[in-house]
Please model this.
Amino acid sequence: EGLWSAKYLQDSAFHPETGDRQNILGRMSFQVPGGMLITGILLAFYKSPLEIFLGQWLNQSFNALVNFTNRSGDKPLPNSVILTAYFTATSFATATSIGMNKVLGSRGPPVVSRFVPFMAVAVANMVNIPCMRQQELKEGVVVYDEEGRKLGQSSVAAQTAITKVTISRICIAAPGMLMTPIIMERLEKLPRFRSMGKWQSCAVQTLLVGCFLVAAVPFGCALYPQKQSILVSRLETDLKERIREADPARTVVFYNKGL
Model:
């Protein structure tokens, strides 16, 4: 039991391929406290362009750190890649928020505009994760056999990995960002909550999001295991031929998806 406890601690704090100790703010174990604070701010301050910009800047700064910390592969990322991903995702998220706020804020009921932050976060995840991990898309992620021996690098596996990570991240954000606005819409009709200021509302929403994240983070991480398998037949032609030439009976290889 002590050995398993030590393994869980090791896995949560160190990168599986580089062996480097991860930045504590970028670890998945920090997703609940970090995510609930930032999401609470996004949900409470979403009406003015300045609020949207500052909220999305804070969120994408956090996301960039998380994506960098939990990437697949052992090669260092150039600063230019990190900065490109950061500014691109922040721009997309801010533009999506402001645009949807203008369209939905004037046409739909008030509760609809509360969902704008989630739409912006979903769009930003679709941009931030591929941008931050673009080196994997270009060069491929390392594929292994059951014993951990390197067999080559595959861009096909990288595409699958990034798609699954993006889906997982959106699933982690969805419960808190979709259910909290509905709950707040009902609470604000009650006399006790009707006169709440923005910061009081932010505190309540932060606590609500935290309750959802406690369940959503483990679910999102477990949705697709970090160690993934892929059929040899799905790999690039040259890599597939090399693997079959070395081991004709091999049908499956493995890779680190990232988180």
Remarks:
- The first strand starts at residue 141 and ends at 144.
